[in-house]
């Protein structure tokens, strides 16, 4: 780029990887779930992605997976039991300031949300957006995608319908206090 007085500036394009976006949220949720487990509050686990191993190598007495494939599509990230009810949710994070892209939620995940609702379980999305963590119920998510034709959920809808999850020291993301307000009110 040429600036006044013939000063030259070289700008290099940064290689930014988005592959680990959401890992901070996921780590905080894993720590929170560990807290819930150790304090006998809930049994919530991160589901492993089902993979099929094709090729393994042995180096220094260690087995290393060289080639693998995804056996099947995974459903939602977390599931377990809370207060005698089945619970399942997914964690999503976006850098978009004005809307949450629906492309972040796959068709098989939407089907899973519908199935959990149909069978009386608790299902929701935890969405981190604009440095705020929200809980959007599966029911509100389904209502939105069934009535709106947009390819994203507006931030205004999230602010209106979703619940802000306060972050703290223990647990880091206390989403179960929100679950209590929504699904166990009056108990």
Number of strands: 10
Strand order of the largest sheet: 1-4-5-7-8-10
Q: Give the helix proportion (percent range).
A: 25-40%
Rg from Cα: 21 Å
Number of helices: 5
Distance between the termini: 65 Å
Report the top-level CATH class: Alpha Beta
Mean pLDDT: 85
The total number of structural domains is 1
CATH architecture assignment name: 3-Layer(aba) Sandwich
Helix and strand run:
HEEEEEEHEEHEHEH
Instruction: Write down the CATH topology.
Output: Trna Endonuclease, Chain: A, domain 1
Characterize the main sheet: 6 strands, mixed
Task: Report the principal-axis shape.
Answer: globular
Q: Find the structural class using helix and strand composition.
A: alpha+beta
- Low-confidence regions: 9-22
- Strand composition percent: 25-35%
Structural notes for this entry:
It contains 5 helices and 10 strands, in the order αββββββαββαβαβα. With about 190 residues, the protein is an alpha+beta fold. The protein has a single domain (about 20-45, about 75-185), classed as 3-Layer(aba) Sandwich (Trna Endonuclease, Chain: A, domain 1). The strands form 3 sheets. It has a 6-stranded mixed sheet with strand order 1-4-5-7-8-10, sandwiched between helices. Strand 2 (about 50-60) and strand 3 (about 60-70) form a beta hairpin. Residues about 10-20 have low confidence and may be disordered.
Write the layout of secondary structure elements.
Elements lengths: L22 H16 L4 E4 L4 E9 L2 E9 L7 E5 L2 E10 L4 E3 L5 H12 L3 E8 L2 E6 H10 L4 E3 H7 L1 E2 L10 H9 L4
Parallel strand pairs: 5-7
Antiparallel strand pairs: 1-4, 2-3, 4-5, 6-9, 7-8, 8-10
């Amino acid at each position: 780029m040429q600036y006044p007085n013939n000063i030259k500036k070289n700008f290099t394009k940064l290689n930014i990887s988005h592959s680990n976006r959401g890992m901070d949220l996921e780590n905080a949720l894993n720590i929170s779930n560990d807290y819930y487990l150790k304090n006998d509050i809930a049994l919530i686990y991160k589901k492993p992605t089902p993979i099929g191993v094709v090729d393994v190598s042995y180096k220094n007495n260690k087995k290393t997976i060289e080639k693998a494939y995804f056996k099947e599509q995974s459903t939602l990230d977390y599931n377990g039991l809370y207060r005698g009810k089945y619970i399942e949710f997914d964690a999503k994070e976006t850098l978009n300031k004005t809307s949450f892209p629906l492309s972040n939620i796959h068709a098989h995940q939407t089907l899973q949300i519908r199935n959990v609702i149909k069978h009386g379980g608790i299902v929701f999305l935890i969405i981190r957006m604009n440095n705020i963590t929200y809980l959007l119920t599966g029911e509100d998510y389904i209502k939105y995608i069934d009535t709106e034709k947009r390819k994203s959920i507006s931030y205004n809808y999230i602010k209106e319908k979703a619940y802000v999850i306060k972050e703290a020291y223990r647990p880091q993301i206390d989403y179960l206090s929100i679950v209590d307000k929504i699904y166990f009110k009056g108990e």
